[in-house]
Design the sequence.
């Protein structure tokens, strides 16, 4: 019997036993019973692809829910450290993610690479029969989202996006439940304050370290030399000002700056609240302004030796029904929802506003938060709940709380906001055709060709 069929049989027997017990259990225990594997034999084999600080640290929230059987990273130091720390030295360590996808012991893949690798690995993992937990954003371009949707529909794989705020039950989920209950009235606008960034100044070309496979790190991104100003206080995660490792986020070749970093979180929450309130999250236009760290011409930076994503910005996105979404770098980090009956502010630290205070005398229905969370298991809170939700959904074959479709609606707004910033002009969007109206120059950047040899396998 193959490993995959053996694992499937174990899960079927284990799940059947769990269901028989759950039917006899009190309601408040049933969600807990179905949240985690029932035994070590039922734990899925997980492969980590991208063992930097994000991937390394976030896997601690999945402890006890899976077995790390493989680690892939193009940084030899990161790879070896993760193999030791996450599996006690037992996991297979590889440089090429394709070895992970061919591995029959791997049931699920956790993608924590820089953003420019996300879509390619995700698509090929689904085609290889793997379920996937992928850090946000899933995409670097709008076109990649179309490809991901098509392949997920084709394969039926479970994909959880790492927008873990969707599992902050007492904060973001509760805020969305308040909006959905009508306590805010009609939502007029949402403000997502996501912070800005700083420039780097010129970063010289440097010799590639022996422990880094730079060609594989670049992957589908354009050819570029390795750059570095070493930080004397650097640790194993942060090596200094560079176009690699953690600072990939400040280069449009690899990411989208703050807009797709914190924007992926807060724009998602705003759009979720719109939908729960029965309103539209279908974008129609974007306008605003942004300050760039280097000059731009025809949407591209004119200097290639330093960070180039937007420093600061104030972007106004309008939805089909007139609802406004303001994305800005200034202000306290969080999401402000303003409606005809009240306003609330939610962050990772608090949930405030008159409608929240009124819950003391007029609480939400007992099941309001659970309904927003699709009545799925909630045995933990925050990050750990998000992982439990993923593994629950892989066993039950149901859509996770951070699903592909809703994530792409939100992250496409962020991608389009970045295009508006890069070109310095507003845009009008057709949500049906997924095209910018009357602007061929901007439309040309909705997709990006992959570097030769790193094209995405689509079948």
Sequence:
């Amino acid at each position: 019997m193959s490993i995959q069929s053996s694992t499937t049989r174990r899960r079927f027997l284990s799940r059947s036993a769990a269901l028989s017990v759950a039917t006899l259990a009190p309601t408040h225990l049933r969600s807990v019973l179905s949240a985690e594997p029932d035994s070590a034999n039922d734990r899925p084999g997980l492969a980590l692809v991208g063992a930097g600080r994000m991937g390394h640290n976030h896997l601690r929230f999945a402890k006890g829910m899976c077995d790390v059987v493989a680690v892939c990273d193009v940084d030899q130091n990161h790879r070896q450290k993760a193999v030791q720390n996450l599996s006690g030295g037992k996991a297979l360590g590889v440089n090429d993610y394709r070895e992970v996808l061919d591995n029959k012991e791997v049931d699920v893949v956790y993608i924590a690479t820089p953003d420019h690798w996300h879509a390619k690995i995700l698509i090929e993992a689904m085609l290889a029969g793997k379920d996937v937990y992928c850090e946000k954003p899933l995409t670097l371009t709008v076109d990649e989202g179309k490809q991901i949707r098509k392949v997920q529909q084709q394969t039926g794989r479970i994909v959880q996006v790492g927008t873990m705020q969707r599992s902050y039950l007492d904060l973001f989920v509760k805020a969305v439940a308040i909006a959905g209950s009508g306590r805010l009235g009609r939502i007029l606008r949402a403000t997502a304050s996501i912070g800005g960034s700083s420039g780097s100044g010129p970063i010289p070309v440097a010799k590639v370290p022996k422990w880094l496979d730079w060609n594989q790190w670049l992957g589908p991104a354009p050819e570029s030399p390795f750059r570095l100003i070493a930080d004397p206080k650097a640790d194993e995660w942060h090596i200094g000002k560079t176009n690699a490792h953690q600072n990939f986020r400040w280069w449009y070749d690899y990411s989208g700056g703050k807009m797709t970093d914190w924007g992926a979180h807060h724009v998602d929450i705003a759009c979720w609240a719109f939908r729960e309130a029965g309103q539209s999250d279908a974008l129609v236009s974007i306008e605003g302004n942004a300050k760039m760290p280097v000059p731009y011409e025809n949407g591209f930076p004119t200097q290639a030796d330093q960070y180039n994503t937007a420093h600061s910005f104030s972007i106004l996105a309008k939805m089909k029904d007139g609802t406004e979404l303001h994305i800005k770098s200034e202000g306290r980090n969080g999401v402000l929802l303003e409606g005809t009956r009240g306003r609330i502010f939610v962050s990772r630290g608090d949930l405030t506003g008159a409608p929240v205070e009124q819950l003391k005398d007029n609480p939400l229905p007992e099941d309001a938060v659970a309904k927003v969370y699709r009545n799925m298991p909630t045995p933990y809170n925050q990050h750990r709940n998000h992982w439990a939700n993923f593994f629950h959904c892989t066993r039950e074959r149901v859509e996770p709380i951070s699903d592909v479709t809703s994530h792409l609606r939100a992250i496409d707004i962020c991608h389009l906001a970045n295009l508006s910033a890069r070109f310095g002009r507003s845009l009008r969007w057709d949500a049906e055709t997924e095209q910018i109206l009357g602007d061929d120059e901007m439309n040309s950047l909705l997709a990006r060709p992959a570097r030769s040899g790193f094209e995405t396998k689509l079948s």
About this structure: Residues 169-197+255-368+404-443 form a domain with the Dihydrodipicolinate Reductase; domain 2 fold (CATH 3.30.360.10).
